[in-house]
Amino acid sequence: MAAAQRAADDLNEEGLLEATAISIGFSTDGGPDDTGGVNPSSTARIDARLRSSAMRETSAEAFKQAWRAEVGEVAGAKEVIFSSSVVGVGAAINLEIAAEDKTARDAATSRLREALSERAGVFDIRDDSVSSAQEITIALRDAARAYEVTLADIAREVRGAFFGVLVDQFARDREEVDIRLRLPEDQRNSVADLERLRIPTSQGMIPITVLADLSFQPASTAITRVDGRTITTLLADVDVGVTTGADETARVMSQVVPGLREDYPGLRVSAGGEQEEQGRFLPALATNFGLALLAIYTLLSLAFGSYLKPLIVLGVVPFGFVGALLGHAALGLNLTILSLFGVIGLAGVIINDALLIVDFTRAREARGAPPLDAIVEATLGRFRPVVLTTLTTFLGITPLMLETSVQAQFLIPTAVSLGAGVLFASVLQMVLVPAYSSLGIRAGRVLFGPDRLG
Q1: Does the N terminus or the C terminus of the chain have fewer Cβ atoms within 10 A?
Q2: How far apart are the first and last CA of the chain?
């Protein structure tokens, strides 16, 4: 907690750090990996509360980096994780590792950790095989064979002594109650009690320490299986100013994993968490967006009675995406899934504006105006409605784009895609739609003759 105060002082913002709190063995809410509840007593959590984001200039990310620098290496700590996420979105890098046996899995995990640790901007590397919990393992000694005792015999006796042997059952209030026989409580509440336990053999009661070796070893608090195979989850965070989780995951999968598969046959490494969700979501989004555009094209073809004119309307859509990219770059934002939602909504607005010009052109042609003159008249006649539609849409979401509150941060990428894309594409479409229309006239004359324009 002293390091947190020093980090706040180094940032030279008065009142930045409001309070700190420490909890050991228990966490009331999710951590960086969305874990919470009861933890081993060797696990500690320190929370630093900053002043409201609307009242401070320093970002939570900047404070986190300063805090990490102040803490440095913590001697004896297995994992030290810093997180400034508003919600538990999970680690930027999430790899799920499965192998034929635990030895191969642990070795592959170790090599992947080394590969990630060499990358700039990658930090807080950890995996769920590291556990502060311990268990006592029982290994037979040579003396056990002389007494004709097996490991199953010892395990059964230990279970019976500490957990109990079921000797009877009876019903009470429509429930079955077990009657178990086991050692008294004062003889089964410590490791020393286990070491004093005697095992029945054909030659009498023999101390367990004569028959077996008892040793402590790390114990997994949870075992995760995917498709019937035990996996180890390797996690890491990244500095988005240096790299991204997607880039580092792709590099590992293409450059590191192939070599590991040669050394450990049967090894499987897959992206989990955010990367897994993106892998499922983005193809589905692209497919559905393509089907939506196909449906729009079909409807416009029926309405216009033309196969070429709907392409004039749809031809402006890609420039809206360019505008969205420029908007994100201007505001220093990363392109996210929420940004793509804005792009999809943007396509509908752009199509509506282009449709105004194309429909007005058809109306002028129906009144007998030459095609090229109709294009010029439609562009000039629809200029003001298009500009008004664009400005009202852009100005309507500008307050959201400039909002600094934490609650608005999730919607800002969507708003930027929509606002910047509409502004950029609407300016271009006053040039593009007439140009496309002119090209459509020429193409129609080539394909269908001078009397039919497609």
Answers
A1: N
A2: 73
| Other Cβ atoms closer than 10 A to 432 | 17
DSSP state of 335: P
* CB-based contact 199:160 (threshold 8 Å): no
**Hey, which residues does 235 pair with through a beta bridge?**
94, 126
Q: Give residues with Cβ within 8 angstroms of 222, minimum separation 6.
A: 128
Could you tell me the two tokens for 416? 């930027």
Same domain membership, residue 443 and residue 333: yes
Beta bridge partners of 232: 97
Contact in structure between 424 and 316 (CB atoms under 8 Å): no
Contacts of 275 (CB under 8 A, 6+ apart): 93, 94, 245, 246, 249
Contact residues for 136 (Cβ-Cβ < 8 A; gap 6+)? 191, 194, 214, 215, 216
DSSP letter for 167, please. Answer: E
- CA 54 – CA 104 distance, rounded (Å): 50
> How far apart are alpha carbons 275 and 245 in whole angstroms?
8
What is the dihedral sign for C-alpha 422, 424, 427, 432?
negative
Domain containing 51: what range? 1-88
**Using an 8 Å Cβ cutoff, are 304 and 363 in contact?**
no
Q: Determine phi and psi for 397, rounding to 5 degrees.
A: -105, 0
Do residues 56 and 203 both lie within one domain?
no
Query: Phi first, then psi: what are they for 406, rounded to 5°?
Result: -65, -40
**Max Cα separation, the chain?**
115
**404 to 98, 336, 372, 396, 400: CA distances (angstroms):** 43, 18, 48, 17, 9
- Taking only the tens place, the pLDDT of each residue in 370-418 is 888 888 888 888 888 888 888 888 888 888 888 777 667 778 888 999 9
Could you tell me if 307 and 373 lie in one domain?
Answer: yes
Identify whether the C-beta of residue 311 lies closer than 8 Å to the C-beta of residue 447. Answer: no
**Two structure tokens written together for 452:** 């039919």
Going along 78-197, which residue ranges are E strands? 93-98, 122-127, 134-140, 165-172, 175-181
**Cα 138 → chain centroid:** 40
Q: Are 131 and 219 in contact (CB under 8 A)?
A: yes
Residue 214 lies in a domain: yes
Enumerate helices (H) and strands (E) in the chain, giving the number of each. Answer: 16, 15
What are the pLDDT digits (tens) for 19-72? 888 877 655 444 444 444 445 556 778 888 887 776 777 777 788 888 888 887
pTM of the predicted protein model: 0.58
Per DSSP, helices labelled H in 223-263 are: 245-251, 257-263
Assigned domain for 146 exists: yes
